[in-house]
Amino acid sequence: MKRLTFTFDNGPWPGATELLLDFLAERSIKATFFVVGQRLQEPGGIELARRAHAEGHWIGNHTLTHTKPLGEDGGLARVEREIGETQRLIGELSHPSRFFRPNGGGAVGRHLLSTDALSYLESNRYSVVTWTSAPGDWIAPHRPWLAKGIGELDDTDWTLLVLHDRFIAPMLDTLDAFLHELARRGIEIVQELPPACIVIRDGVLTGDKTTFSLADEPGRQAATP
Ligand SMILES: [Zn+2]
């Protein structure tokens, strides 16, 4: 059976995240929220992350400032601030595997992580999470994400979808339509993340690092249990 996992990035976003959490709770859907550290420091931010966690969603780290990708400006001092400071803000809300998702404008590629960022994530035992589908809910006029997202369901047996609290909350009817399409196709919604998207797991490299970082040696492929 085909599967799909929801992730919601760049929040928490007061005024939007609440609506999304209500929508998910009504349908018993569990997701992962990749939060931005600076947004946790805004009024209402940490409370929304706490609510998401209390309702069974997983919380991951999505940098402190969500500015330049760490592959474009990723010296150790910036890496420690972007990742480490956010992890401190997330604190006990963190998933035990310390999920980190680099920002990169929708595309998985070498711009995501510098070699310093890669070794920082390995030595601090993070799990790095990529994605398979980022259909562009953030791109005006926003609603066309739906057709693109449905089209991308054909690309893989286990979709890891990226949407954004801020942009999806004002158009939850599109998310509802998407859910109907998943049901029509018999695609199961799961909270678990597809192993192929966990390119570092608890500090251990499992993917090909040349596909998501500036590291220049080919990545070894760990044996799958
Ligand atoms: Zn992002």
Write a compact overview of the structure shown.
The chain has 225 residues and is of the alpha/beta class. The protein has helices spanning 17-26, 37-40, 45-54, 76-90, 115-123, 145-152, 165-168, 172-185, and strands at residues 3-11, 32-35, 58-61, 99-100, 127-129, 158-164, 188-189, 198-201, 204-205.
The CATH fourth-level homologous superfamily: Glycoside hydrolase/deacetylase
Structural class: alpha/beta
From N to C, what is the helix and strand string?
EHEHHEHEHEHEHHEEE
According to CATH, what is the topology?
A: TIM Barrel
Helix content: 25-40%
Categorize the overall geometry.
Answer: globular
What is the count of β-strands? 9
Report the C-alpha radius of gyration, rounded. Answer: 17 Å
Strand content: 15-25%
Q: What kind of oligomer do you see?
A: single chain
User: For this structure, what is the CATH class?
Assistant: Alpha Beta
Give the end-to-end Cα distance, rounded to a whole number of Å: 21 Å
List all distinct small molecules, including ions and cofactors, that are bound in this structure.
Answer: zinc ion
CATH arch. level architecture:
Alpha-Beta Barrel
In the predicted model, the low-confidence regions spanning at least 5 consecutive residues are none
Please outline the major beta sheet: 5 strands, parallel
The structural domain count equals 1
Number of helices, where a helix is a run of at least 4 consecutive DSSP H or I residues: 8
* Average of pLDDT: 95
GO molecular function: hydrolase activity, acting on carbon-nitrogen (but not peptide) bonds
Organism: Ancylobacter pratisalsi
Pfam family, one: Polysacc_deac_1
Domain NodB homology: 2-190
